[in-house]
């Protein structure tokens, strides 16, 4: 009242202004009270919140421990019974999982799981490189604990172990090779199959018109005005066609990309798809395609290989630093879909370099160098499968999947799928069947197939794959043809499989990685194409292939490329009286009657095992042999025993390795009588280990064709059983049984 009742100066002297001022002051006071109250509450309850959080974590861990303790226990006698389609159990990290209901849903098919039914599957499961999602899925099938399981939990499925594994370099993107060069645009280099120079927009000259049309494609496609917009520029487009002969390689490639997007939208982005492409568009498109030795169709090169730019021109090839040059819809789904393919091609650079080097190693028969390239190739393939492919399924909490299944199948795919079209004024005005852009047009996997000797067994699908090569740059086709003309690694490794088993392991490990990639790609196609297709229809890929049949055939052909180690060389008929392996009977008082008298042999044997200061150990230190220092003809025992650690582990081929040295063992058998007591004991010890490895090896070699032996009153023992004594009663010694 005092302020309003004075001179009519400051606030106009009106009661309304006075009330307004009071409200402002009251609001400020309330705001201050709330502010100080908030900080007071936060200070007061901050520590309590931390305590509650820790209590919550403790309670969760206690509940998890209680749940584990309540799981039922199973013994091996029970677990081993569940190895069929009707009931299939696996033991992973000492836990029992009932995966019967998952057999038919397994991406790799039921047979891969059934192979380990009723057995320990820890190494196969983690060695296959299953994703974090697959590891978490295990909990859905957990039914108990294996009580008498002795396996070591080398691969724990807890987050800390997985975090350590993810720190490995193979889990991280390398950022690609960003070095550019002035060579041919599509020269295959350390950048893989990406162009030697970054793609870019044309900012001057006649192509600016096409750039402007493509820049407005998302709007024109959405409102259905693309055909009118392009028709208005007919004369300018025809003028560009007339000047194609003056364009350099970069301009020609950019022209093909721009015309591909414009013509595809012109045909597909209306109420009804066109059957005929107007002459003024088809003439230029066909002409530039012929100049580049490609097809007048939107291909993988147009929308992936030659359709990106780096935001930071000096930055790495990452999802955050890439942006697509051309687009149909302008939505994040299309952007993410094509960018993820660019990342895969960028990270495939080391794959191509290793393939090129591996072919060179095969040509000069450099086994050691080939092993090194196999290792590098396996790491690079692991990165493609486990780091690059999952980018496609990336999502955020706010927006969900960055490339939604529905958006891809119903919005983007109708624009880029295969078509049958009349190019007016070209090809005698006859309709032409053209394949849409497809991952099958990437040259990465065909290069791997060429190195590994993987061939498409279906003539029909093989013809489609060869047709895809007409859509890739000419330099890429020449590169593929050159690789296919060279000797494959499969042929080289197969010729050395008995001499270099480690080479076979590495080869088959790469086959596993290729299978891993193809199964992961199959999951992508399943989500984006097969599951989105109307029921009762055959899902077709954008390239026009029957998706399910095509991918499964590729997977089967990849599996067939493995090199088996169960095959043995043919063995000629044995001579009479010549056994296949040595005979050693340490109980015999006369092992070598031609060299040492019986009494002398028995005396030396007793001295060797005399109980004295060494307790029950042998009186003298046993000899340590190398292949050079071993007695004559005993080098084969040293060689085989040294292979035991690697050739027996993880279903190794030790049995086949032993069978391949059968002739050497027969020669040793002929000269076994020349060994001294110490040498005979050492030979017997090595043979004991070799027999254990032979029996434990899961690679059962088929029996080789052998001429029928002459009749004998005494049946002959099999394989290494002959190593521990004669086939009669003398063989049944304590050393043999041990």
Molecular structure report:
This protein has 738 residues and is mostly helical. Helix content is 50%, strand content 5%. It has a 5-stranded mixed sheet. A 3-stranded mixed sheet has the order 6-11-12, covered by helices on one side. β11 (419-423) and β12 (431-434) form a beta hairpin. α12 runs antiparallel to α13 (279-292). The chain starts with a helix and ends with a helix. Residues 1-14, 33-68, 152-167, 567-584, 586-596 and 699-738 have low confidence and may be disordered.
Descriptors for this entry?
12 strands; disordered N terminus
Total helices: the number is 30
Structural class: mainly alpha
Low-confidence stretches: 1-14, 33-68, 152-167, 567-584, 586-596, 699-738
Number of strands: 12
Largest sheet: 5 strands, mixed
Helix content estimate: 40-55%
| Ends apart, CA distance between termini | 113 Å
Q: Main sheet: which strands, in order across?
A: 1-5-3-2-4
User: β content, as a range?
Assistant: 5-15%
Tell the overall outline: elongated
Overall pLDDT? 77
Radius of gyration: 37 Å
Please outline the helices and strands.
Blueprint (H helix, E strand, L loop, with lengths): L1 H4 L9 H56 L2 E2 L1 H4 L9 E4 L2 E4 L11 H5 L4 E2 L1 H6 L4 H6 L4 E5 L12 H8 L41 H8 L1 H7 L2 H6 L2 H9 L6 H20 L7 E2 L1 H14 L7 H6 L2 E3 L11 E3 L7 H16 L1 H15 L3 H22 L6 E2 L3 E2 L3 H12 L2 E5 L7 E4 L9 H9 L6 H10 L5 H12 L3 H7 L5 H30 L16 H14 L37 H11 L26 H14 L5 H7 L1 H9 L6 H20 L37 H4 L1
Parallel strand pairs: 1-5, 2-4, 6-11
Antiparallel strand pairs: 2-3, 3-5, 7-8, 9-10, 11-12
Helix pairs in contact: 8-12, 11-13, 12-13, 15-17, 16-17, 16-19, 17-23, 23-24, 26-27, 26-29
């Amino acid at each position: 009242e005092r302020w309003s009742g004075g001179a009519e100066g400051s606030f106009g002297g009106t009661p309304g202004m006075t009330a307004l001022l009071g409200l402002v002051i009251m609001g400020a006071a309330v705001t201050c009270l709330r502010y100080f109250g908030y900080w007071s509450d936060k200070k007061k309850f901050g520590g309590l919140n931390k305590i509650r959080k820790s209590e919550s974590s403790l309670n969760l861990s206690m509940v998890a421990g209680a749940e584990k303790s309540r799981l039922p226990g199973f013994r091996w006698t029970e677990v081993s019974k569940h190895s069929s389609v009707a009931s299939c159990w696996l033991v992973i990290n000492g836990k029992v999982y009932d995966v019967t209901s998952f057999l038919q849903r397994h991406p790799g098919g039921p047979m891969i799981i059934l192979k380990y039914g009723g057995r320990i599957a820890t190494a196969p499961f983690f060695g296959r490189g299953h994703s974090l999602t697959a590891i978490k899925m295990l909990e859905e099938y957990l039914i108990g604990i294996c009580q008498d399981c002795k396996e070591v939990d080398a691969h724990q499925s807890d987050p800390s172990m997985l975090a350590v594994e993810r720190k490995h370099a193979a889990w991280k993107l390398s950022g690609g090779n960003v070095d550019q060069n002035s060579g041919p645009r599509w020269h295959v280099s350390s950048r893989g199959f990406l162009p030697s120079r970054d793609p870019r927009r044309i900012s001057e000259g006649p192509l600016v018109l096409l750039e402007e049309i493509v820049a407005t494609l998302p709007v024109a496609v959405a409102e259905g005005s693309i055909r009118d917009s392009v028709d208005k520029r007919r004369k300018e487009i025809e003028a560009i066609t007339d000047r194609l002969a003056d364009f350099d390689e970069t301009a020609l490639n950019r022209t093909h990309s721009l015309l591909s997007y414009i013509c595809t939208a012109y045909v597909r982005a209306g109420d009804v798809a066109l059957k005929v492409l107007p002459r003024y568009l088809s003439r230029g498109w066909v002409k530039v395609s012929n100049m580049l030795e490609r097809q007048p169709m939107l291909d993988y090169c147009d929308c992936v290989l030659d359709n990106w730019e780096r935001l930071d021109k000096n930055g790495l090839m990452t999802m955050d630093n890439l942006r697509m040059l051309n687009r149909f819809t302008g939505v994040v789904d299309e952007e993410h879909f094509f960018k993820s393919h660019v990342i895969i091609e960028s990270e495939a650079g080391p794959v191509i370099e290793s393939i090129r080097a591996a072919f060179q190693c095969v040509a000069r028969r450099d086994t050691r160098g080939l092993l090194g390239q196999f290792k590098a190739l396996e790491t690079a393939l692991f990165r493609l499968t486990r780091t690059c492919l999952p980018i496609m399924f990336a999502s955020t909490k706010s927006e969900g999947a960055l490339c939604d299944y529905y958006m891809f199948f119903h919005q983007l795919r109708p624009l880029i799928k295969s078509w049958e079209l009349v190019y007016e004024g070209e090809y005698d005005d006859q309709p032409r069947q053209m394949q849409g852009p497809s991952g099958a047009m990437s040259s990465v996997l065909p290069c791997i197939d060429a190195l590994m000797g993987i061939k498409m067994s279906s003539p029909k699908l093989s013809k489609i794959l060869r047709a895809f090569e007409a859509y890739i740059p000419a330099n890429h086709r020449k590169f593929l043809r050159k690789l296919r003309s060279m000797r494959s690694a499969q042929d080289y490794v197969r010729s050395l499989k008995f001499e270099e088993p480690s080479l076979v392991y590495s080869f088959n490990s790469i086959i596993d990685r290729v299978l891993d990639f193809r199964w992961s790609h199959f999951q992508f196609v399943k989500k984006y194409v097969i599951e989105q297709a109307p029921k009762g229809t055959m899902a077709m890929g954008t390239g026009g292939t029957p998706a399910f049949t095509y991918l499964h055939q590729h997977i089967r052909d990849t599996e067939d490329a493995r090199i088996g180690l169960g095959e043995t060389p043919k063995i000629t008929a044995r001579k009479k009286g010549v056994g296949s392996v040595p005979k050693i009977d340490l109980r015999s008082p006369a092992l070598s009657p031609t060299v040492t008298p019986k009494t002398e042999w028995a005396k030396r044997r007793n001295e060797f095992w005399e109980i004295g200061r060494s307790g029950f150990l042998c009186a003298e230190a046993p000899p340590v042999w190398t292949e050079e220092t071993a007695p004559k003809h005993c080098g084969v025992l040293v060689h085989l025993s040294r292979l035991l650690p690697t050739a027996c582990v993880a279903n190794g081929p030790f049995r086949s390795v032993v069978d391949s040295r059968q002739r050497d063992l027969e020669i040793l058998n002929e000269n076994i009588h020349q060994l001294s007591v110490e040498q005979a004991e050492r030979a017997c010890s090595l043979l004991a280990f070799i027999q254990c490895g032979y029996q434990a090896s899961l690679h059962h070699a088929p029996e080789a064709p052998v001429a029928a032996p002459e009749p004998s009153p005494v049946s002959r023992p099999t394989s290494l059983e002959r190593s521990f004594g004669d086939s009669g009663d003398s063989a049944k010694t304590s050393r043999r049984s041990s």
